[in-house]
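Sharing a chain and its predicted structure for anyone who wants a worked example. Both blocks are below, sequence first, tokens second.
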Amino acid sequence: MNSDTLPPTPVTEAELQAYVDRQLTPERQREIEAYLARRPEEAQRVDSYLAQKRELCALFNPVLEE
């Protein structure tokens, strides 16, 4: 394995959640994006997290604005 196939440090579930929440540094965000580009099953799972986040925001943002 070389540096083109793996990010410098392993990707954890916590980092995937932080990616969904946009809580990563720009550099780490790019590394996670590259990681997901090479792992379609992981990317699909993260896409489902993003969809769930959008649905929750659509449901609850109006309540927060009251």
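Comments welcome. The chain has one domain: 13-64.
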